[in-house]
User: What shape does this take?
Amino acid sequence: MTQMLLILILFSTFSPFCSPFDGARVEIYRIGSKGEVTGAELVRRELQRDRIRLACFSANAAANVRVPVPVHGAVGEYLIDLSIGTPPVTYTGIADTGSDLVWLMCQPCDLCSDFLTPTYNSSESSTFTVPPCDSPLCENLFVENSQASCYLGNCHYDFGYGDIYTQTYTSATGVLATETFTFQSSDPVAVPNIGLGCGNASTMYFFNSSGIVGLGRGNLSLISQLGVGKFSYCLTSFVDTTSASPLFLGSLASLNSSATLSTPFVSNPNPNNTYYYLSLKGISLGSTLVSIPSTAFALKPDGSGGLIIDSGTTLTLLVDEAYQPVTQAIESVVNLPIDDGSDIGYDLCYTLEAGSSPPQMPSMTFHFDGADMDLPAENYMRPIPDLDLWCLAMASSSDVSVFGNFMQQNMHILYDLDNEVLSFLPAQCNTL
Ligand SMILES: *[C@@H]1O[C@H](CO)[C@@H](O)[C@H](O)[C@H]1NC(C)=O
Ligand SMILES: *[C@@H]1O[C@H](CO)[C@@H](O)[C@H](O)[C@H]1NC(C)=O
Ligand SMILES: *[C@@H]1O[C@H](CO)[C@@H](O)[C@H](O)[C@H]1NC(C)=O
Ligand SMILES: *[C@@H]1O[C@H](CO)[C@@H](O)[C@H](O)[C@H]1NC(C)=O
Ligand SMILES: *[C@@H]1O[C@H](CO)[C@@H](O)[C@H](O)[C@H]1NC(C)=O
Ligand SMILES: *[C@@H]1O[C@H](CO)[C@@H](O)[C@H](O)[C@H]1NC(C)=O
Assistant: This one.
């Protein structure tokens, strides 16, 4: 409700009108599902991106800056198509619960690397406006992006990050604009004056997307700007390359089942922090509780540590004091030759006999505060058919832990921000 009020205030600054936005369904699909990159190469790129992203989470968690996570070889990703402008044009962006601003590459783009999808041309839209520096939208940008600046009366973002692999500095810059977004509900609903980053330069490397769709907690995220208070998504199986995954916004986001379990979100001590933290108490494999120190997943007073649920990281990343005992538990139940998986960036893989199926594995349970999430082997062990490998979809992290999208397959996950709880229900996502 407070978010709805905030949005009304933001809108009223620019326009006397505010279309009521109740809810919508948007399709999400996985990069790679259109066959651009396949097999082991796909897997390799996913994990390269995970590592860069993790470095950013750790750097930003406690710091007074929030930059969108870097998008570099962005293949382990889910994409959303959004209709933007008047008349509406469809653009594809990366669905990212780890950042806020929705931004697209715009024309003219003097420095754009490999943007393979259309770039947005503001001259072709009658609803493109650029708010002044003293507008509430710009104030929110200054909170999200410490490098934002006021230039010729308008505010500009500058998201920068270091690439831990190439040791280079890369960035995405642009002006903060506003646009009309159109959603398909029972009828199309046009929502005016949504803050939209219009990029003029980026050295980030994208595949099959024109930008990022931020779904984080901050005031500039699509969720906050629509004022919906809740959203849910259900990611289809990684091996399903044809079905789209539904994203429900607002009133359509609901888990109608008595089997739904819920766990509270945990607040980072830094009020500017945009990530969704959960309280994880422990992990079991089958009926055996893995021996993990009780403080392993705790958020520290300085805002570091903790466990984030993220739509944009593939693997589940655990601090080493949890990761090591979990891998030992896996090794104690799998009786296959070990392959170190390093060729494809994994940490622990098993060699399968050519063409054979993986052995039965017990489910893994994540004991969240008040809600045990049972994960079948398909949600934590990844077959790599090209290579006859079967790999643990987890890796070690030095500071923050991340619940990645591989584990979220076929789980309908509701982010209920009005009530500060995350709810979930196992589901066949391709049937919703
Ligand atoms: C993009 O715009 C910024 C101002 O926001 C300007 O400083 C920069 O030079 C522009 N970059 C390119 C490549 O046009
Ligand atoms: C943008 O749209 C305008 C108006 O249709 C057109 O004149 C211009 O060439 C377009 N710019 C680019 C870079 O496509
Ligand atoms: C949050 O962001 C604002 C604006 O950039 C800044 O003044 C404030 O110090 C930040 N708060 C914290 C706790 O970092
Ligand atoms: C997606 O990106 C790949 C390059 O990674 C390119 O070959 C392919 O044509 C793109 N597909 C679409 C639909 O843009
Ligand atoms: C849940 O129930 C509500 C109200 O009956 C309905 O609008 C919504 O579509 C249902 N959601 C799902 C995911 O079935
Ligand atoms: C969001 O906006 C509200 C109202 O302007 C402000 O109080 C709050 O600090 C902002 N939150 C963040 C994280 O910027």
About this structure: The chain has five helices and 29 strands.
